[in-house]
Each structure stands twice: as structure tokens, then as C-alpha cells.
Amino acid sequence: MKKINELDIKNKNIILRCDYNVPMEGNIIKDNSKIKKSIPTLRYLLNNNCKIVILSHLGRVKSEEDKQKKTLKYVGQELSNLLEREVKFVDKCTGEKVKEFVDSCNKGDIILLENTRIMDYPEKLESGNNLDLAKFWASLGDIFVNDAFGSVHRAHASTAGIAKFIPHCIGFLIEEELKNLSILVKNTPHPFCVFMGGAKVDDKLPIIKSLLNRCDFLLTGGGIANSFLKAKGADVGNSIATNDEGILAELKNLMDKYKGKIILPIDFTLDDGIIYDIGSKSLDLYKKYIDNSEIIFVNGTCGKFEDERFTEGTSGLFKILKNSNKKVIVGGGDTASAVKKFGYIDDFAFVSSGGGATLEYITDGKLAALEWMEL
Question: Rounded CA gap, 287 and 217, in Å?
């Protein structure tokens, strides 16, 4: 798998896959971090006099209404502001008119095509990695540069299929992610501590199992902690926790198998009997394990940190991690948003831009779309 500086890209037409799946409320982008992270690769391509055609998805498209609502138009405006140059937005992503428009553009132009997921309705052509669709996108350029780290755990037409048809490489963002996350895949220092929080244990169970084989301590928060407590026989009431009896049984088996390794909170912040956060005694307990570790991986939060009443656990955990002076790597998604919200974005060794991609990579060291790029 080649890196961007290992291919001759000067004066070439580039298909650049970015991850612009940003949180939005109406037409307002709530966090532009993912757009900012694409800038180094874009600058490099512009400095090499490339014509750049950008592909990205935005959410999931399951209806005609979604096709209208989930547009990248406002992402294009934000990117234009950040680069201080024009970004030509095209409200389609396939078809002869798209091809004609791209061909009419000049070197140094940036073209952003509409949300690739509009090709998922009525048929899942994008997420189904339809090779005819991938071939069309490949026809728009000479070289495919994949820099969408947050999307490379899925082999879609725009992340994987294009690589079948034209020379390809990874951009600076993916290179940075792989470099910084690799320490969690092999040659990991010990003691290795993991904090795993968030709402749904069901989705993260395979990752939890994988990490339990490799880590020394697994600290828990949020719905994941509640689910372990429920599996242990505690009454968590209407707090967020799994109701799947099979998963509860698996969690109980894990606690039996890894006695002393899975650490659960011991006090909580409640509202009307519902657990919304962990308490100060739990943070004191977690501090002992963190201080006794060489490296800590953090994914998820301690509770409903978006509500100002329930920020103590998550902000307190970040403060402990900062003051520990240990190597801290933070998983993406909501975790990165929380780190940013509480002002710790520059205090940890690395904050990943990926959510599922980060977890998949540290689970087995593989990412589906990048497998296609090695063929």
C-alpha cells in the first residue's frame, strides 16, 4: 500500500476520498474537525498542481427525502472558507454531466461531488461496493487517494472499489492514524489499560473480547458499565443497558474468565433512579489503575456528558488522564467530541478521527477498504 509521497502525482487528476461525515443540525456544521483534518493532503495536492475531485458520504440515505436532506453543499462552503479558495460543488455524483463538468475543469480546481450515499437508494450501490459505480468514479481521474480514515473499515465503492481500476495510495491523514494506532496492535507496552464507555455494549462486545485478551485492565463507563453490572445481578432500573439475555450471559462469563481485570464503577450520579454518570469514588478507583499503566486507550464516555448535570465523570476522567503523564490514545466519534468539549484536545498523545475504523483496526489490525488497496 503506497503513501501519497511515493507516487508521481504532479499535474495529475486526483480522486480524493475524504471523510466529511460531519455532525449537522439543519444547514449548520456542528464540528468541522474532519474537514480540517483533510487540509494537509489537499494542500499537498494543490502544491503539485493537481485537479482534485473529492468524494465523501454524509450519513445514511434510505429514502428520496434523505437524498435531498443529506447534501454536502454546506461542507463544500466550509471547505472553501478553510482553504480560502473556490470549491466547485456538483449536486450529483454520477452521470455524463458530472463527467463533462469534471473534464472541463482545470488543474488546481477542487470539485466536490454530492454525497456518495445517494447511490444507496433504491439500490445499495455505494455501500454494496458496486464495481460499475467504482469504475465511473475511477474514470474521473488518474490516481485514487484514500484519506477517509473514518470510513475505511467498510469496503464501499468509493473507499475500496476505485482502487481496482487506477493507481492508488493513502493520504496523510490515514498515514498518521495508522502510525499512531499501531502501538495498540503490536508491541503494546504493559501494563496496558483500556477505558470503554458509551451506550451500547451489543455493538462493542467483539472489541471488548479482543481487548480483554491483550489489556491488563478494562475500566468501564456509561451503558457498557451498566450492562456489566446488570449481568452481575445489580438492579440498574431503567438505566441504559442491554436487555439481550445472550449478551448478558456473555458479559457474566467474561467477568468470571477475567476476574480482577474488568473494573466497574462503584458510585453514580442518578436522576429519578436512572444512572447518568459515574461518581467521584469511581474516578478515584480508576485513577489507581491509570497511574499503574504505561499506555491507556480511551473509547466512549462515562455518561451523558452532553448534559451539563452529568459531566463530572467524563471531564474528571480526562483530567486524571492528563495528569497521569502516561501515553493516552483516544478513540474517535463521541469520545473525540467530548475531549474537545472539555478542553483536552491537545493534552493526549493522539486523538483519532475514526470511530468504528479505530476500533476495528485495534481489534485485528485490518481495515476492509485498505485491504483492497494492497491488491
Answer: 12
Domain residue limits, the chain = 4-174, 185-364
- Is this prediction's pTM over 0.85? yes
CA dist 9 and 216 (Å) reads 45
Interacting residues of 358 by C-beta distance below 8 A, sequence separation 6+? 177, 181, 299, 331, 332, 352
Are 193 and 290 in contact, with CB atoms under 8 Å apart?
yes
What pLDDT is attached to residue 375? Answer: 65
Please report where in the chains the cell 499512531 appears, as a residue.
Answer: 180
3-state secondary structure of 50: coil
Distance from C-alpha of 255 to C-alpha of 224, rounded to nearest angstrom? 13
Averaged pLDDT score across all residues of the chain: 96
Mean pLDDT over residues 7-27, rounded? 96
Q: Which fold has domain 185-364?
A: Rossmann fold (3.40.50)
Determine the Cα–Cα distance for residues 56 and 93; give it in Å rounded to an integer: 10
Question: Residue 21 in contact with residue 150, Cβ under 8 Å?
Answer: yes
Count other Cβ atoms within 10 Å, centred on residue 43: 12
CATH no. for 4-174: 3.40.50.1260
- In the block, which residue shows the cell 467521584? 280
pLDDT value for 355: 87
The reply to whether 185-364 shares the fold of 4-174 is yes
CB atoms within 10 A of CB 122: 8
Q: Are 93 and 36 in contact (CB under 8 A)?
A: no
174 Cβ partners below 8 Å, 6+ apart?
146, 147, 148, 149, 152, 370
Please say whether the beta carbons of 15 and 137 come within 8 A.
Answer: yes
How many degrees, rounded to 5, is the angle at CA 33 between CA 37 and CA 44? 20
